[in-house]
Amino acid sequence: MTQNVLETKVGAFEARMLLRRRMLGVAGVKEANQHTSTAVEAELRTSVINCFNCDNDASCMDWLATAREGVLPPYFCQNHDTIMRLKAMSQSKGESK
Ligand code: SF4
Hints:
By secondary structure, this protein is mostly helical. The chain has one domain (2-95). Helices cover 67% and strands 0% of the residues. The protein has helices spanning 2-27, 38-53, 57-66, 80-92. The longest helix is centred in the N-terminal third of the chain and has 26 residues, at 2-27. It is globular, with a radius of gyration of 14 Å. The structure holds iron/sulfur cluster (SF4). The site of iron/sulfur cluster (SF4) has 13 residues, from helix 1, helix 2 and helix 3.
C-alpha cells in the first residue's frame, strides 16, 4: 500500500516535470549544462518548485498540445516569469533564439 502511494506520487511528479520540460522547450529555453551560472541554476530550481505546486496541469497539457515553437509561456503558467528571466539570461549570453 505504502509503495503504491509512493509510486503514484513519483509518477505524478515525473508527469509534472515532463510538462515543465515541454514548456521550457516550447519557450526556447535550453536546459542546464555544465557551464550554467548560479543564477540560472536558481531559476531552474524555482521552475521545478513552481511546477510541483501548480494546479493548472490540465490547462498546461491543452496549451502545449497546440503550442508552436518559440511562443511565450501562457500567463496561467506559474513559470511564466521564471521562463522569461531564463530567456533573457540565455539571450544575454547569445544562446537563445
Ligand atoms: S502551467 Fe503549471 S504545470 Fe505547466 S509548465 Fe507551467 S507551472 Fe508547470
